[in-house]
Specification:
Layout (H helix, E strand, L loop, with lengths): L1 E5 L2 E5 L2 H10 L4 H5 L1 E8 L6 H16 L2 H7 E5 L4 E7 L1 H6 L4 E3 L4 E4 L3 H5 L10 H4 L7 E6 L27 E2 L6 E2 L8 H10 L3 E6 L2 E6 L7 E6 L1 E2 L5 E3 H14 L3 E4 L1 E3 L13 H11 L3 E5 L18 E6 L6 E6 L4 E6 L7 E6 L11 E3 L6 E3 L26 E6 L3 H13 L4 E6 L14 E5 H13 L4 E3 L10 E4 L3 E4 L11 E4 L2 H18 L5 H9 L13 E2 L5 E2 L2 H4 L6 H4 L4 E2 L4 H10 L4 H8 L20 E6 L2 E10 L5 E8 L4 E6 L2 E4 L5 E10 L7 E9 L4 E10 L10
Parallel strand pairs: 2-13, 8-13, 8-16, 16-18, 18-19, 19-29, 22-25, 25-26, 26-27, 35-42
Antiparallel strand pairs: 1-2, 3-5, 3-6, 4-5, 7-15, 7-17, 9-10, 11-12, 14-15, 20-21, 20-28, 21-27, 22-23, 24-28, 30-31, 32-33, 34-36, 36-40, 37-39, 37-41, 38-40, 41-42
Helix pairs in contact: 3-4, 8-13, 9-10
Organism: Vitis vinifera (Grape)
Keywords: Hydrolase, Protease, Serine protease, Signal
GO molecular function: serine-type endopeptidase activity
Length: about 750
């Protein structure tokens, strides 16, 4: 591991995935090929001396390998700051022969999951009264990011006027000399993801920024006065992969470095959600220890929404972030030959002139009538009739570079997701196509396709209507100008976010680009957490999370309804945005907070069936689970979720006053459909001696059959604050069967 600094930036280089890179780009001996990275997790530290802990790790490994020399050669990392454990290269036989508990890092990989957004959230740099200026822009706070690295020369990371760096380090290294994957054996960013997320979280203002004139304005981070600490855990392998061994070391080092907040735009690659607590990974374990040390951990919820049960990073100690759009879009009208007009989304730059044809790849009856492509932002197309009005999903993915049916034409492509969209556009471009019309899930239509290639995006419904028009018209034409724990916790801007990119990610020498996804929403929340940490340095991670969740906007900041984009589009609910869209200025003064600590999270693990021995691995404390039945409903979350209500159930919460000393709050309840909710007491009184009050909530169902989830809220109101908790309830009636005998 090596590190470096550049003014206000700290960079950490973590290298276990280099083993995987090397296996893919260079030859290895048979003995090396049999060794893979395994992790031994030993829970809380038993000593405060890091060197003593590392010596203990080597002693344990020596008992397995037979010599100290073999132990030194095998060990990759010693986790010795925030918790105890190590990563080592072992054969399967060596791992199985050990008496230790191992989990294999080699196969447990995570994927990387970006300015107007800050003004949209009420943090304009021109206002003198908002949270941004009330905290001196986060000065003195350290934001750590676990990502793909950073490009420190970018103007957005200028440290002018920031004083000395808070940590020491070393300079960036040289490129990793590979032919297949451009990468650096240093914290320098070859992927672009980390540079973009870092600029969102804490980048300095860069005026007159844009992507070829689009999104023109000032690019900056949420806490431009904060320091950034980049822990490089992701490598340029098939788009960016991150191993558990690196992730655990990053958490361990960040705890030692004393960061204030960690932004983690990562998630498991292609695995089932809601299994993280049962099968712990590096993010779950590392975040637990970070939060125990008072570090807020902000993680991406993943990009699988709006489908059900697609949320990642669901542990209650994590602040899990969904992505919302902002009041920026690039609408592109599509006018058909019958004068019917649809709106798509496009980021068309430059001029496109000449004639073009529109084709539907994978159709055996393609025709090639000509269509006029007039200068952006206008495009006219003469579309051939297709023999059927229904579409084939991912039809353009079968396009080959030698596909003459696409060359010189614009392709109509139906895609099933973001990656398929990018592949479809790439394939059409490689086949010398002139552009694409992408029909996809409407939740993705804000995202860009690929750079420097005309791409207009519509949802499936619009695509199907266009296809129906094509099939019913002889010479159609078109013209378009240029689980019991609610997750996610909150939504932040994540669509078409302008941020910095490294030279390896540059297109025509622009320093900025638009990215979309929860990876971009996560550093927005991390930047806001940094500001809140600066304003309230003694608040716990749970208190900060509560302040953010209970003050979120449940309508757009302009008062418009929030929709979850899918097919069909629906009004958003807590499963889409948690507490709502983050409202940083209200979060600075929430009135009341739902606070928690390590003991509360241990109780949560008890409710999941962890025994005392397993919990001891986390804490190294003799805190046992309570006897009898434990209820997860009593976890002091700023939300209430009841996944299986039969008749009636009760739960408790406690709130701590962080507002005026003498305060009185009254309950305001919006009950879900068919559900009755009562709160006792319904009035909370605080004074100089009473700072925390406990209340009970009784929830009853009048339904006689099983139902889906319905939603409501409980708000505590004092005339100034409205401390709102989202409520989600599902009625599940147990079926009874008569005895026929």
């Amino acid at each position: 591991m090596s590190s470096l600094h550049d003014g206000g930036l700290i960079f950490i280089f973590l290298a276990s995935l280099i083993l995987i890179l090397n296996e893919k780009v260079s030859s290895v001996t048979p003995a090396q090929a049999k060794s893979k990275v395994h992790i031994v997790y030993l829970g809380m530290r038993q000593h405060h001396d890091p060197e003593l802990i590392t010596n203990t790790h080597h002693e344990m490994l020596t008992t397995v390998l037979g010599s100290e020399e073999a132990s030194v050669d095998s060990m990759l990392y010693s986790y010795r700051h925030g918790f105890s454990g190590f990563a080592a290269k072992l054969t399967e036989a060596q791992a199985q022969a050990s008496y230790l508990v191992w989990f294999k890092s080699y196969l447990r990989l995570h994927k990387l999951k970006t300015t107007r957004s800050w003004d949209y959230l009420g943090l304009s740099s021109h206002s003198s009264t908002n949270l941004l200026h009330g905290t001196n822009m986060g000065d003195g706070i350290i934001i750590g990011l676990l990502d793909s690295g950073i490009w420190p020369e970018s103007e957005v990371f200028s440290d002018k006027g920031m004083g000395q760096s808070l940590l020491d380090g070393k300079r960036l290294g040289q490129p990793l000399n590979t032919t297949e994957y451009l990468e650096y054996l240093s914290p320098r960013d070859a992927v672009g993801h980390g540079t973009h997320t870092s600029s969102i979280a804490g980048g300095s203002p860069v005026f007159n920024s844009s992507y070829y004139g689009l999104g023109f304005g000032t690019v900056r981070g949420g806490a431009p006065g904060a320091r950034l600490a980049m822990y490089k855990v992701c490598w340029n392998l098939d788009g960016g992969y991150c191993s558990d061994a690196d992730i655990l070391k990053a958490f361990d080092k960040a705890i030692s470095d004393g960061v204030d907040v960690l932004s983690v735009s990562l998630g498991l690659d292609g695995t089932a959600r809601f299994t993280e607590i049962i099968k712990p990974d590096g993010i779950l374990i590392g975040s637990f220890h970070a939060v125990a040390q008072g570090i807020s951990v902000v993680c991406a919820a993943g990009n699988g929404g709006p489908s059900a049960q697609t949320v990642e990073n669901t542990a209650p100690w994590i602040l899990t972030v969904a992505a919302s759009s902002i009041d920026r879009s690039f609408p592109t009208p599509i006018t058909l030959g019958n004068n019917r007009t649809f709106l798509g989304q496009a980021m068309l730059i430059g001029n496109h002139t000449g004639f073009a044809s529109l084709v539907y790849p994978d159709d055996p009856h393609l025709q090639s009538p000509r269509a006029l492509l007039i200068p952006c932002p206008a495009l006219s197309l003469r579309i051939p009739p297709l023999g059927r009005p229904t579409f084939k999903m991912d039809n353009c993915l079968s396009t080959s570079p030698n596909d003459t049916s696409v060359a010189g034409k614009v392709a109509l492509c139906f895609t099933s997701g973001t990656f398929e969209t990018e592949f479809a556009a790439s394939f059409v471009k490689e086949a010398r196509g002139l552009g694409v019309i992408i029909a996809e899930n409407s939740g993705d239509t804000q995202a860009s396709c690929i750079s420097d290639f005309p791409c207009i995006k519509v949802n499936y419904e619009t695509g199907s209507q266009i296809l129906h028009y094509i099939s019913s018209t002889r010479h159609p034409m078109a013209k378009f100008p240029s689980p019991a724990v609610l997750k996610p916790d909150i939504a932040g801007p994540g669509a078409q976010i302008l941020g910095a990119v490294p030279p390896s990610d540059l297109k025509k020498n622009t320093e900025f680009d638009f990215h979309s996804g929860t990876s971009m929403a996560t550093p927005h929340i991390a930047g806001i957490v940094a500001l809140l940490k600066s304003l309230h340095p003694h608040w716990s991670p749970a208190a900060i999370k509560s302040a953010i969740v209970t003050t979120g906007w449940t309508t757009d900041p302009s008062g418009e309804p929030i929709f979850a984009e899918g097919d069909p589009t629906k009004l958003a609910d807590p499963f889409d945005f948690g507490g709502g869209i983050v409202n940083p200025n209200r979060a600075a003064d929430p009135g009341l907070v739902y606070d928690m600590g390590t003991a509360d999270y241990i109780h949560y693990l008890c409710t999941l069936g962890y025994n005392n021995s397993a919990i001891f691995q986390f804490t190294k404390q003799s805190i046992g689970c309570p006897t009898g039945k434990h209820s997860i409903l009593n976890l002091n979350l700023p939300s209430i979720t009841i996944p299986s209500l039969q008749n009636s159930t009760s739960l408790t919460r406690n709130v701590t006053n962080v507002g005026a000393v003498n305060s009185t709050y009254k309950a305001s309840i919006i009950s879900p459909a068919g559900i009755t909710i009562t709160v006792k007491p319904d009035t909370l009184i605080f004074n100089s001696t009473i700072k925390t009050v406990t209340f009970s909530v009784t929830v009853s169902s009048i339904h006689q059959v099983n139902t889906g989830y319905s939603f409501g809220s409980l708000a505590w109101i004092d005339g100034v604050h409205a401390v709102r908790s989202p409520i989600s309830v599902r009625t599940m009636i147990e079926e009874s069967y008569a005895n026929d005998s």
